Structure formats: structure tokens, C-alpha cells
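subagent[fold] <- orchestrator: predict structure for attached chain, return C-alpha cells only, no commentary.
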Amino acid sequence: MHITFVKKRLASGEFCDKCQDVERRLAVDGYLDQLDEVVVADEADSQSPGMQLADALSVDRAPFFVVRDGAQTSVYTVYLKFVKEVLRGRVKATEVAAEILRDNPDLDFV
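subagent[fold] -> orchestrator:
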């Protein structure tokens, strides 16, 4: 399995807030060493590796994780879902749902 973490650098040169938060959480949770590669999607450079990867995989949000396992490629845009399904971390379903709602203000509970 090969795991790529893609984080976005804004035109200002700073990394997006969500990317910084996820990278901090990866460090605090002890998962950084399980990543094989960190790639930057640079807003100022459409040819940057992260922008090309986002385009190739039709991903329109950052950060995201690309997991390649043999011939299968999976994309995760929700940190806790990635941790639960790929890293097998202990995550409650309510935490995943809360993160999805936080990241998608247009959604609501049913």
C-alpha cells in the first residue's frame, strides 16, 4: 500500500487552514510515519504535482489522501474516515459524521 497526503498551498504562499489542521492531527495522532509521500497542490502553479494529481483524480478539495493498493486507488477527503478505514485507528462514527458536516456546510442531519 502507498499513501500520499496532498496539501494545498494558497496563492499567498501559506498552506490552507484545513491542511495545516490535518497535518497537525497526523503528527499528534502518530500517523505521519505511515505516509509514503507528501505532495503540494500549489494554487499558483497548475502544473504542481498536487494540482496534477487532483485533476487526474477529479478531486476538488484539500487536503486529501490517495491510497494505492495494488491496482486499486482510493481517495479520502475526510481525515477521520481515512484514519478509520486505512490506518485502522479508533474513530467513532459520530466523529466522522461531525467532520463531514463541518466540511460541508450545505449538508444537514436528516
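orchestrator: received. Logging for downstream: The domain at 2-103 is CATH 3.40.30.10 (Glutaredoxin). The chain has a mean pLDDT of 87.
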